[in-house]
Amino acid sequence: MRIDKDMKKTDSRHFPDTFRITVPQLETLVATALGSGGTWADLYFEYSTYSDLTLRDGEVTSGGFHTDYGAGIRVLNGEKTGYAYAETTGMQDLTEAAKAASAIASSRRRTPPVNVRILENHSLYPMARPWRQADMADFIPFLKMLEQKIRSRDSRVHKVIARLAATQSDIMMFNSSGELACDTRPCGSIVASVIFTQGGRTESKSVSRSFRRGTEMVTERLAEEMAAEAVSGIDARFEARRPKGGQMPVVMGAGASGILLHEAMGHAFEADFNRKGQSIFSGRIGEKICDAGISIVDDGTIPGNRGACNFDDEGVPGQKTWMVKDGILNSYLHDRISAAWAGVPPTGNGRRESFRFNPIPRMRATYMENGTASADDIIASVRKGIYVDEFSNGQVRIGEGDFTFFVKSGRLIENGRLTAPVKDINIIGNGPRALADIAAVGNDLKIDDGTWTCGKEQNVPVSCGIPTVLVKNLTVGGE
Q1: Which is nearest to 254 in space by CA: 367, 140, 407?
Q2: What is the spatial distance between Cα 410 and Cα 420, in angstroms, rounded to a whole number?
Q3: Is 15 helix (H, G, I), strand (E, B) or coil?
Q4: Which one of 128, 265, 368, 435 is separated from 58 by 20 to 30 angstroms, measured CA to CA?
Q5: Helix, strand, coil shares of the chain as percentages rounded to 5?
Q6: For residue 232, what are the contacts with CB-CB under 8 A and spacing of at least 6?
Q7: pLDDT by 10s per residue, the chain, length 479
Q8: What are the angstrom distances between the C-alpha of 376 and each of 199, 254, 384, 417?
């Protein structure tokens, strides 16, 4: 779509006003960035507000508010990347940043000017009331209510820490293809950390919810849901013992155990690792890597989800990408650099922590699609093994695919039944081998809505999920 130079015919006036810049100035900055040559240039403007509130045992102990504002400028020339940023959006500072990025990625090539067009926004973030219209003090009663609901459910609750954090970001992106993308991204997160005591022993549990929604996500129903989850399974945690280890089948419960899928397999599908030959899956597009009943997705299109993206941080529209489809390695997760290298369209996975960082391939919401088995039938098929529903502290070697995860919550499986609760064990395996060893996939897919954050060089919000899955052979580190 062609637009006039001052953007008066668009509904995006808010964004150039926020960043005190006009379309002609955007075009000038791109031209400056390409002044020393280069094949591509893009601009990333950001205005983010962050607020948080913490209650410990019903008393406010901390709260804060801060803003982040600035712009990053990137120039690409083959394998060379020039990047610079400014913590203002004044033309003098941005021009200097554009010149710095240009000098790093200099070449003899000149890129011709293009017509400006606005990219359509998908509106994946429902927001009835923006976080910027709220005072964090308004949420003190909610956090107190959350604590009271937790305490009322279990007399062993010793301490409750309840925290609410909210961000809202205005993002404007422009590039040398003339594409202009504007996005307002909300994200609200609530965490309750609970310490229980019994007979001189302590156990802890944390529950969280995070959505790309406005303040309307904060409801009594959500407090009830989180309180019920906070006390669920605490009897088992006090009873849990460390079992004998060894090679055995492992059943991963639906939902939060999808973090193993994210860490042990998802990262190996990110295209920068594959472009550089660092992933165990490098060069294997089109190969059969697991059973035909398995499909693994990275999805940026789930409305309100923590990993949802109207646009990624390169201005590519959010989309749903099948990394594995019916057992075949179908696609890597691409940013613009890796997509150009592979000769395929970008998949909307170019993400960055803020305007201070280059975008790189990152996941969004990663999950395995439903199979046909019931969870009960999967468990009944195991004579002796382990059922796991919550992992933490995973370590993965991308090149080899080896992983280790600590189990926070699980049970023994004996003769097809869940029996004694277990703790203090590790699950050890290899990503490609574990994929190949999946013997059954449940029909109970659950996307976990916790406060997942992925820390590959930069921190970005993500989510994960999985149906109940049986891996027929993993190493369990126990006694």
Answers
A1: 367
A2: 9
A3: helix
A4: 128
A5: 25, 40, 35
A6: none
A7: 233 344 443 455 899 999 999 999 999 999 999 998 888 999 999 999 999 999 999 999 999 999 999 999 999 988 789 999 999 999 999 999 999 999 987 766 555 556 788 898 878 998 999 999 999 999 999 999 999 999 999 999 999 999 999 999 999 999 999 999 999 999 999 999 999 999 999 999 999 999 999 999 999 999 999 999 999 999 999 999 999 999 999 999 999 999 989 988 999 999 999 999 999 999 999 999 999 999 999 999 999 999 999 999 999 999 999 999 999 999 999 999 999 999 999 999 999 999 999 999 999 999 999 999 999 999 999 999 999 998 877 788 888 889 999 998 899 999 999 999 998 899 999 999 999 999 999 999 999 999 999 999 899 999 999 999 999 999 998 77
A8: 34, 12, 15, 9
Cα separation, 90 vs 96, whole angstroms: 10
Can you read off the two tokens belonging to residue 326? Answer: 């019916």
Per DSSP bridges, beta strands 320-325 and 328-329 are: antiparallel
CA-closest candidate to residue 434, choices 257, 223, 264, 238: 264
Name the token pair of 149: 């609901």
